[in-house]
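Notebook entry, cofactor series.
This is the third protein in the set we're modelling with a bound small molecule. For this one the ligand is fe (ii) ion. I'm keeping the input format identical across the series so the outputs can be compared line by line later. Sequence and SMILES below, as received.
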Amino acid sequence: MSGINYAEKIPNNVDLSGDRTLQRALEHWQPNYLKWWQDMGPEASQTLDVYLRTAISVQADGWANFGYVKMPDYRWGIFLAPQTGDRKMHFGENLGKDVWQEAPGEHRANLRRIIVTQGDTEPASVEQQRHLGHTAPSLYDLRNLFQVNVEEGRHLWAMVYLLHRYFGRDGREEADALLQRNSGSQDSPRILGAFNEKTPDWLAFYMFTYFTDRDGKFQLSALAESGFDPLARTTKFMLTEEAHHMFVGESGISRIVQRTADVMKELQTEDPAVLRAAGVIDLPTIQRYLNFHYSVTIDLFGADQSSNAAIFYSSGLKGRYEEGKRTDDHQLKDQTYRVLEVVDGKFRETEVPMLNALNEVLRDDFIHDSVAGVGRWNKVLDKRGVSFRLKVPHKAFNRKVGTLAGIKVSPEGDVLTEEQWKAHENEWLPTAEDRAFVASLMGRVVEPGKFANWISAPVIGINRQPVNFEYVRFN
Ligand SMILES: [Fe+2]
Ligand SMILES: [Fe+2]
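Returned structure with ligand:
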C-alpha cells in the first residue's frame, strides 16, 4: 500500500489504475497543471537540472531519494499515508464512530470548501515565488526554493485528487478553478489575503516560509485529525514536506541575522545606514519584515469567533492541533476560551464558548510555535554580543481579519489613534524604501559554494552533500 507506483503516468499509491474514470479525469487535468507550471511556476527554470528529493514511499525513510531532475519532469503524484484499520472519530459529536471513507452528504459542501481553501494556497505560493530564481543568493538556496515549489505543486495534486475522487463534477470544476485563480490577480485572486501579497525578495521568501508555511503546518495538522479519512491521510503526508519548508525559512533568516551581526561586530556599529552601505540588511529592517509577515499570517486563521469553526469541529471535519494528545472531552460543549477585544481604547479578554473560538485556539497554538524560532534567531545575536532582539509584534498589530481588524495597535500592544499610527507606521512595517534597499542587494550568485554578501553560508549542505555542491546545473 505504501509503495508508490512510478510506472504510471501519474505516480500514486492509491491504485489509480483500478478506477479508470478517475484516472482519465486526472490525466485530463495533468496537462493543464503542466501548462500552469510553465506559465506561472518558477521563471526560466525549465531546463535546469535541480538536485531534488522525490518521495519513493510514504514511510518515514521514503524521502531518501535525491537526484538531478528537470522540474517539468518532476514526478508529481498522489500519495496518501497508509490507512490504519479501524480509525475512529476522536472528537466532535461523532466521537467513537468509524471515520468516513466517503464524503457524507450532509458535510459535503463544508468538506469541499475546506479542501478548496487549502488547495488554493499551494499554487498561490508557487506563483508568489516565481521571480525569486533570478536573484537566488546561492545554488544551495536556489535548490531549496525549487524544492519548496515542486512540493507545493504536489500539495495541489493532493487536494485535486480529493476533489476528483470524492466530489464528482463539482470537485472537477473546483480543481480546474484552482489553476485559474492567480495570486494578486485583480479579476480572480487567490482566496486568502496573505496569498495575494507579493514575495518580492529573499528576505520576504524566508519570512514567508517561516511564518506562512507554518500556518500550513497548523491547518494541515488540524485536517490530519479529520473524520474524513482520505483528507486525514493526505494531509498527514503533506506535513512531512512542510517541515522542510519551515526549515528553509528559519535557517534562511538565521543566516541573514548572522551575517548582519558579524558585520556589526566587524564595523563596531549599529547604524543602519552604515550597515546598508556595507551591503547587509540592518536588524530594524528585518524586524519590519517580520512584523508584516507575522501579522498577515495570523490573519489566515480567520475570525476569532466563528460558527463555521464550531460546525467543522463538532461534525468531525477539522480537529485541533494535536487533538489526539489533548486530555479534555474532545467535544468542548461547556468550555470557554478567552479572546481579546478592544473596549474604550483598552484591551479586554472575554470568555466565549470554545467551540466558536477554535480559529483563535489554532492561532494561539501557531503563535506559541512561531515564537520559539524567533528566540533561536536571537541566540545568534546574543552569541555575537549584539543586544538587539527580534520579537513578534502584539497579536492585534496590523490585523485585517476578526475582532481586532482595523484597530491601530503598536507592535508593543499600545492602542493608538489614527494619527499616532501614521506617525510611526514607517518604523513598524516595511517601507517602499526598505523594499527598494533589500531589492538592491538581490542578485543571482551561481558559483558553487559562493553566497551573496548579505547572507551567511549554511552549516551543512542538503542530503550530506558539501555546501559547495553543485545543487543546480545550468545547461
Ligand atoms: Fe503546501
Ligand atoms: Fe509549504
